[in-house]
Structure prediction request, 289 residues.
Amino acid sequence: MAQLQTLAERLGYGPDARLLIVHADDLGLSGSVNSAFTEGQKSGLINSGSAMVPCTGFGEIAAFARSHEQADIGLHLALTSARVVERWGPVAPIAEVPSLVDQQGYFHERWTSATPINLEDVKRELRSQIDRAIENGLHPTHLDSHQYLLQKKNAELFEIFIQLGRDYDLPLLISREWFAAYPYLQTLTTPSDIVLDRTITIGPVILPENWADFYRNELKQLPPGISEVLIHPAHDTRELQAFFQGRQEWGAAWRQRDLDFFTSGDFNALLQEENIRLVTWREIASRLR
Prediction:
C-alpha cells in the first residue's frame, strides 16, 4: 500500500521541507497587542494571527483586515475570560447563552466540574463570533481557540469545533503531536482534514534571559513538516501593564519579549540559515483547494 502523503507533500512541498507559521494569538485584546501585530506584519516575520471577537480591540483588527485583504487573520474563538482588568462576555445576547456567563454577564474565568455548560449555548456563541467577524469585514482564514479549550477540553467540544470548520469551510488548528494525549482528536478527524505536525509555545519555566535561546534551539531542531509557533506579541506599555496588573505569565513584559525576537534580524537570519520557509493558513487552504 502506498504511504499517505504528508500535509507538506499535499501542498506541493518535498518531504524534507521545513515550513513554519509564525502565529500571534489574542489579536483584539488591547491596542498594544494590535499594534505589535501590525508591526510584525510589516516586517513579514509575524505572518499570521487570530482575533478575539468579544474583546474591545476587535474593531481595530477588523479595520486592519478590511484594508489588508491578504493578511492571514483567523479567529481565536473565546468562551472564557481571563482574570484581568478588562473582562469580556459573549457576542450572542446573554439571554441566549446563559450557561456561558457569570453573575456579572462576563464569560467564566475557567470551567470547572461545577460549571454547567450547555453545548447549545456553545454552538450559538461560536457561530455568533464567526458571523460578527464576517459582518465586520474580517473573513477568517482559519479557526483556533483561546487556551485550546475547543481542542483539549473534551470530545464534545472538539466535535463542535470540527463542525464549525466544515460548515464555514475553514481549516482548524489541530496538531498531530496532541493525538496521544487526546485520542478523540485523531478519531474525529479524517485524512482530508488539515492537521499540522507540531506546535511550539514558550512556557513559564523559561527565564527572560533565556527567551531567545529557547526559540533559537527550537528552530534549529525543527523537523520537516508544517509547524506553528504560537506567540503573544505586544508592546510593553502602561496600558498593557495595567491590563494585566503585574501578571508575569503572558503579561506585558512576556509579550514584548516575543515581539522583540520575532521581528529581529536574528530571527530572520536563522530562517535563512536553517532553510525554514514561512507559510500561512491562507496559503495552506489555497493550495489544497
Summary: The mean pLDDT is 94. Residues 119-135 form the longest helix (17 residues).
